Amino acid sequence: MIDRGVALLDARRRALLEAMGIVIWEDRRTPAAEGPGAMPAPLAGDTATVDDVALLDWAALEQRVAGCAACALHRARSRTVFGVGNHAARLLVVGEAPGAEEDRRGEPFVGRAGQLLNAMLAAIGLPREQVYIANIVKCRPPGNRDPLPAEAAACSDYLARQIALVRPCAILAVGRIAAQNLLGVDTPIGRLRGRPHRYGPDALPVIVTYHPAYLLRSPDEKRKVWTDLLVAKDLLDAETKP
Ligand code: SF4
Q1: What are the structural domains, with CATH classification, of the chain?
Q2: How many A from CA of 218 to the centre of ligand 1?
């Protein structure tokens, strides 16, 4: 099954995938008009400017994100949290959203959860500097709530472009929000773990595991995360960079 990142495929490739019986997830950036996932009504200054994101280079992409007002999360942020790491990384880590410390420092996965993520990566021989780390949304949700589906959708082109620029061998999605939004599914994280998924035009392998912040609250789950990390390591050992 291929996720909604394939939505940018050209018509010919899309037709080939459909002929092979591969499900193509559709772009869900259009917000629902109402309901729990609805985006708050835009204020003056909110703009939807992500249409040409797929064409941007690193510098232009970071600049675009820094000035983005495509969803309501821009109103309360101190700064955007773009992403950090090796632009040629073999592993790309996707998290959920900036927290308070990330919002203050402008970098994803800092603080205790970040330290645990670093330890998780080191356990499979990957220093933090060797991977690329980004979140589903680039602005901190108020009160550290989950990003709304419409907010995640509004931000999705930025992450898709980061993944396209890095072209990793594999993606590690940490936490339910990251996994569900990346794969375009509502499946519980416990059922997403344990098997590789696929993302985007290159059908990049995606491994799902628990968020380090959850592990800090539930250390008994570390054994499962270790299993997931070993799957990721095996994938990285087997995959060549696309
Ligand atoms: Fe823009 Fe993403 Fe921030 Fe929303 S969360 S304002 S889409 S950068």
Answers
A1: 2-14+49-238 (3.40.470.10)
A2: 30
